[in-house]
Input
Amino acid sequence: MLSIPLVDLKAQYAAIETEMRAAIDGVLERAEFINGPEVADFEQRFAAFCGADFAVGVGNGTDALALALNALGVGPGDEVITAANTFIATAEAIVTAGARPVLVDVDPGHFNMTAEGLSAAITPKTKAAIPVHLYGQLAPMADIMEVARQHSVKVVEDAAQAHGAEYQGKRAGSWGDAAAFSFYPAKNLGAYGDAGAVVTKDVGLAATVRMMRDHGRTDKYRHEYAGGNSRLDTLQAAVLGVKLGYMEEWNAARRAVAAKYDAALGEFPWLTLPARMPGGRHVYHLYVIQTGRREELRQHLSANGIGVGIHYPLPLHLQPAFRSLGYGLGDFPVAERLAGAILSIPMYPEISDAQLGRVVQTIGAFDG
Ligand SMILES: *Cc1c(COP(=O)(O)O)cnc(C)c1O
Output
């Protein structure tokens, strides 16, 4: 039986092996493993890719979120609003910054925070909001930014799943006061290990994050902050620099795969397919279908060698880690219903028509 993974990083490597080896060898030969020239080069190119002015490479996406919040002055006593249906890192970063996560329910169509939801959750303690661009589609950022500005609430985009995604012609990373990206290996732009970046148009904020990621340094042994260490390795920057050159192509390929899935799976009325928000450019980090018989379909696909995932099975308000926030079952009905119905199916730029056909056929056989 031919198995088809959820994500195929080996296929990606095979396509860029020679170029990647040369980039990695260059770092090894020059032995500038920390703050090598590849870091600043990647930062500049990635900022431009996002339609922003600055990118500051950091250790991972979770740190990127926390550093952005810190640099915006979020701290103890503050509330930060985010979506209930995200990866735990979004809320962890709020806790790391010393603030309290306040969760909101999401839109059942596009899965993201809405401006109305944000508006209803704002209190005098709200310092910031983190809209998450889940699965590769931007939250409705024009309306979200308008509400945030009205209430002097800072916005950090969680763009960990949305490299190159757009809404109204503007990219993830160009909307908020800052944006946090993850380059975890399986993300649309992935390192060969952990990496992340804070992206912004604010020169002061970029400078603050730059200091915070590197021991609050202004000079080799002069420290303005007790910052810590969350630098982007030169090796990872070199890897990301090579892959950034393929991002437009790879995102276009993901969109083409999604269009094929849309057409083929549209034949099955018992499935709900991912909705595209008008005015958006979805980059399909994940292709997420819904069915009332999710567990049976998940088992059927797994048994037939098809890689599947659930992103995510337990909303944040029901996570043991956030018990102390005092939320309970029933608080965010859309996030709860989605958690029971969603299923991520194989999505990567290199998936072949034959593989895609087998995924569709296997799903079809479940219905029959
Ligand atoms: C991956 C991810 C993160 C965290 O990124 P790491 O680099 O793994 O720390 C944060 N938010 C979302 C939505 C993610 O998908």
